[in-house]
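Quick question: what would this complex look like in 3D?
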Amino acid sequence: MTFARLAPGVAAAAMAAGLAGAAILAVALQAGGFDLPALLTDPYVRGVTLFTFKQAALSTLLSALLGLAAARAVHRRTGPRGARALHLLASLALVMPTTVAAVGIVAVWGRAGWIASLAAGLGLPGPGATLYGLPGVLLAHVFFNAPLMARIFHAALLAVPDGRWRLAAQLGFGSREVWRFVEWPVIRRVAPGASAVVFLLCFTSFALVLMLGGGPQASTLEVAIYEAARLDFDLGRAAALGLLQLVLCALVLLALARYPAEWAMGGGAAGLGGRIRPDRAEPGARLTDAATAALALGIVALPLTAILVGGFRAELVQLPADPAFRAALVASIAVALASAGITSALAWAICEARRTLVLPSRLGGHAGLAALLDLGSTIYLAVPAIVFGLGAFLALRGAADTFALAPLLVLTANVLLSLPFAVRALQGRLAECGARYDRLCASLGLTGWARFRLVEFPVARRELGFAAALAAALSVGDLGVIALFGSDSFRTLPWLLYQRSGRYQSDEAAAIALALLLLSLAFFIVIERIVGGRHAGR
Amino acid sequence: MTLKTILPTLAIALAGALGRPTPALADQPVLTVYTYDSFASEWGPGPVIEKGFEERCGCDVQFVGLDSSIGAFNRIRLEGAASKADVLLGLDVNLAGDALASGLFAPHGADLSTLSTPIPWDDPVLAPFDWGHFAFVYDSRRLSAPPTSFEKLLAAPDSLKIVIQDPRSATPGLGLLMWVRAVYGDRAPDVWRRLKPKILTVTKGWWDSYSLFLKGEADMALSYTTSPAYHAVVDGETFIKAAPFAEGHYLQMELAAVTKSSAHPELARQFIAYLIGPEAQSAIPTTNWMFPVNSEATVPDAFRDLIEPVKTLAFPAAEAQAKRKAWIAEWLAVMGE
């Protein structure tokens, strides 16, 4: 019984971790081995690693702060509608191709951007070239990750039972006491896990860091890997650098795993929540919320608007007539649907194994093993796409036609990429469901499919819908492995976007970018509604 | 719709995407050409050349567009003797040394003596099929007096901002590195130190830079002397111009090669001959936005209006290969200061 609950999840996490390790090993074997000592004493590698850590840590911190402020503001000021908007924003930011986002950010904050022309109109000094450097990198990373953080924190706040807010009101809590006794206890449970994933996303960011960072003084390990694998074809160095990145990320993950990491990205309980918060009318809270709204507008909403404006101005209407676009659309939809299905199933299995290890009603207390499950499901975020692609190619080249396998490789990469998010979306609700119903189910003899159908699915379908929708949307936007395996017989939309922008095709690229975003969004809404049921996303 | 109806739909959709067969006529030999994506794409030269060659060869030409020319070359290196590729298109002169050293390519057998290339080229293995010069482009509506030499660019106020590409990830970026070296020799690090305050940012790829420039973020972008021709032919706009530099311009010449492992070496050699012939070469200017190597090729008027470099700069392939790593390290050291 216990074995049946553990095995699929452990196998899924082991497979994810194994694929990551195998890819690096395959590259290293081809090269004839690693030279790690030489790498660790290389001053260039050390400099790049330090900067990578610095920008990732700062990005995570700022994203968490803005995310927290935004989550509190949304919780205090809005009902389900605000939650829904936050929800969409978070998923949109997750799926946006980096080049597209960079263009939006530059359109707002650049030398010739909206802020600069506004400043010029008012006779004030504009931002000039200050965007390019650490500020640009941080701005872009906050653009991507603050909505995600806000979404997670908001879900945590929603999960606070109404009774606790009523009690806080009776005790006459002000904003500070509310934070200390009501909000902080739930935030601290989700913050480490959320920070870990955001840290990984920033740690491995590459094109964005180079473009907005002003140059090689601000580049990440990924660019060193890229150079080794591409320009120098030095596979040993590429593999060693990949391993270094993997180890550093694993250390960060394990360090954070000491703290309970139960963040849920799914919807919280639909209680009264914010409407009965005692600190709603406080002037200080009003002020912070207004400031947060202004900040969020500048950092997230304006660049998004710039992207939409740019896309609509281009030739969006002509796209459906383009056979290449139609083919890429079909391929993207097929991969996204498959990715959604497989990711949800694997995530479910991992969560099942995780709660079996942790819940007192089951084995209980195996937090260390649970942390390994988390590591396995998250580690792919630390593997550079180019190393994964090279490794997969080397492993498969004898066995099959690698071009024919391209769709399968892209699908695998997309599943692995979505897995950390899907697992975190499901895990809180499934654990809660186990804690509440394990004894009841045992006494009724409900197991397997019957238990899934009658207990788990109704309780966790919203979260399952969110996980599936996110996986679909993520794989619609992903340009990782496809960049290595795409060819004219298999193209996805991000690949087409990349191709079109390669040689002057800027209008079409802008239109495809917008189509990509709209498709991700459509996927997100539709899948979440279908799987998650009527109350999805609330 | 429930899960029960979603799963079969999903399976059908996936099967449709995976099971698309590649069209190949069984009785015809297939000539596989690896190249970079935009060459093979439907608006690139690929389809025209494919059609033209198929009409005379009785074969099926299949272009495989990979993420870049280096990507295509690396793919052949990884595949080794098992590679399906018969021809590789698009290698830059700066990487020619690596290609020759790999020993993966065989003589092309074509007569290069009739070609008009900006530098003499008679390599028996690597055949040139188009060329262009790197240049800084500017928008004449925004910049009325662009620098006319590297010296003037270095002397310009730091408020003049340029965007360039990283030599580790983009061939134009590598080209600029060579350009500065060709003009200044060992003084290159000092030149980069003076250039650095004018560099708005360094991007991973050419397009990231170029779109920043088009959006008005930078005054000049590292691109090609042929970039203005694109805007003239496609958009009918003439305000995007390339700045002629008195010291000369560095050359980008794209090369083609026949693989040693080719199953149809004779066909592959015929393909190279066709590629550098007048018919295929006439398709190059308005599809790849580069100059043809064959003087009999037709070239649109917009190409005649382009700037003509006073001097073509280029390192021999062997030297570029030998020095590349050291020069990149040197550049990184200055840029990281």
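Answer marked as accepted. The mean pLDDT of chain A is 81.
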